[in-house]
């Protein structure tokens, strides 16, 4: 019996080591100086031989190491031959809301209903998700956690990816309202023998219902509000401008209708998400001072007459038209695919966009669009020390090999469940190779 007890205890100990969650890094206790690295500032500028100092979670110095005699402070990291980047930012993400999509108990990305502006994704965010920790080894350190479903999905929040819980993770609480704009055409159910595309006869009515909800919300907020109405009440921060409006839309006509809706409802801060046909009406988008979070470049063309490489160059076309554009990664297997965010930017660079401009698609541009450019998105004095050191070009799969990363000055682990499995099984095969035949 004693031997059985010892065996069970040993097994439980081993199992706990496998499934244990990572402990978030402690607060920065001393200054860190990175010297010699090629610094990609995230604003289009590069310092070939940089000196970066940060302490108390904030960047205090970013300069050319060859033109300064500043004394190094705290922990000194010689990063000669390596690259330093600001942490990449993943907008419109369901990270932490879905763990295993086929297990309903771990899927909390969507609520029942159509008009849900009062739903907050933040309180459902699982900071201990194994998928979230797998973002850090690729340099994705910040994300906008966004609900799905319905006409108005709810409210997103922006978090950093090393925390005990959602309260510790939050960077910007309830940053934006997310609307799924109605579509003019729907795809037929092929298994029912329906045609490929057919007109949505209810499109005008669906848009009218959305406008009516906005009008009713304004009327409610202008009244005494004696009777509590959570959806109407949640719209107050939208009308005061404290909360951005993110409209998920793709078609050309739909985008133009969104721009008209923006004017009619007096929405000053609106962002288009996905926006597949945005390049066709880029002039109108720019004129209305609207930003775009373009769909991920690793996507198939959605229309018969699109170029085979359209998805690769969509962001570049918008950028060349003067539209503020970032990249988002929603779609099939979106949670785990978010780690590919830097490679999406690399793909855009491969179609003719300057590489430092492509970097802005996942750093400074996204920070501006999300309203966190005062603390994130670039390597500048006064901003959060959320950055990483890579062996090579972080937009290239071959060069994206992180050796150190920090979030708000805290050095975070670059291990994940996947890296541990890799090490475990690579050691197994090493042992087999070294064994005599």
TrEMBL record:
Gene3D superfamilies the UniProt entry points to: Metal-dependent hydrolases, Urease, subunit C, domain 1
GO MF: hydrolase activity, acting on carbon-nitrogen (but not peptide) bonds
UniProt xrefs under InterPro entries: Amidohydro-rel (IPR006680), Metal-dep_hydrolase_composite (IPR011059), Metal_Hydrolase (IPR032466), Metallo-dep_Hydrolase (IPR051781)
Keywords on record: Hydrolase, Signal
Domain of life, source organism: Bacteria
Chain ranges of the Amidohydrolase-related domain: 313-410
Signal peptide per UniProt: 1-20
Protein name: Amidohydrolase family protein
Species this protein is from: Antarcticibacterium arcticum
